[in-house]
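Recall the central idea of this unit: under ordinary conditions, the amino acid sequence of a chain determines the structure it adopts. In this exercise we apply that idea directly, starting from the sequence alone.
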Amino acid sequence: MVTWMPPQRSEAAESIYAAAEADRAARPERYRLGIEEADAIVERATAKHGVEGLGDPARWRPGLEQYLASAAEDGRLNAVGIRNAHNAAVGKLRTRSIFDKTLRNNPDVAEREVLPPIVIIGGWRTGTTFLYRLMARDARLRAPRPVELYAPWRVAKLSGEERERLIETQAAEPNPLHILNPAMAAVHDSGPALPEECVLGMGTTLRNWGFSSTMRLDGYSRWLADEDFAGEYAAHRTMLQILDDGSHRRWLLKAPAHTPELSALARTYPGVCIVHLHRDIVETVASGASLFATYRSTYSDDVDGRDVGRFQTDQSELWFRRALEFRESPTARSATIVDIDYRDLVSRPAETVERVYAAGDLDAPDVTAMLAAHNAEQPRHGKGRHRYSPEEFGIEPDALRERMAFYTDAVAEWTSRTAS
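Accordingly, the structure predicted from this sequence is:
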């Protein structure tokens, strides 16, 4: 039986949602979605920097229209969700325009060297966040925080001390997402001071797998599956070049959403070290469904557990098949790939992390001390335990294992090869 229920909203959250719905009733024209709203979104995004910075519409207009159409047709969004969809589209186009302006005013930015990054990937909920935030403690590595991803040009103007003060100031403020949906702190903690997925900085071509984690975007996701991400990863590289602080630190990045686009990632960053985490497939898909369902409940009052389970299963299969295709392609030869079993990360964390450093051609620090400091500051379940079951999302474990055997068989071969 599908039993998933959305988390209960706090009184503060209920008042925010009620105010937004009242505003939608009073001013419905501000809450329209669909392709017909594309021009209004573009106008908002370019009001300050001009439309010229967006470049050829063929590079971003199809993504914008697909996103808006899917949000309208599939999203089941409440008033807060519609605002979020509008702001996301405006923000990505505005970023695109500012990137163009930055490169025109400072052409040397495009010449800045980007050392081959270490990129942590895998299915949702495979330990990527733990490993990422643990390794981010290494001063030789640089892991971006949210403000660096949302507004890299702003951070680029600051000294290191100024940047840290800005982040500390933001961290002292209440987390807007946690106000709307307090359960998110336990499911996936976030905040201005925590290193975050670089997918937050992607989408300047309106191509971003991360969009479907926060909203129901089935039509957009189907369209995205056939899209070329070369332009999107070129913008990703521009983002890192803008953020360059002259320290020559190596970028440490993380996002499960890189998993289906490893070819574009490797072409953009020759020599990239890809750290691929693997977990029991039922745990991976069920935990990911719980994450998606909880996140989507922030922006929709109509989230169905079985529907999320179906989407998460389909998307996971697509992502893993694409990852296997990459492994078998010539492009994979330009990357270093290390496979990590989630069970090893939990049971033998120091030894496992040292393997990652070796793959990245870095001397490992005192990993035991790093683990102790990390666990003290960010203890597991420190903000609540994430509880879920596959049955909540209509996931039948045996059927899922059979469907995903193409991937789990390959993982068994990869990890045994690493062990030997």
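The chain is about 55% helix and 5% strand.
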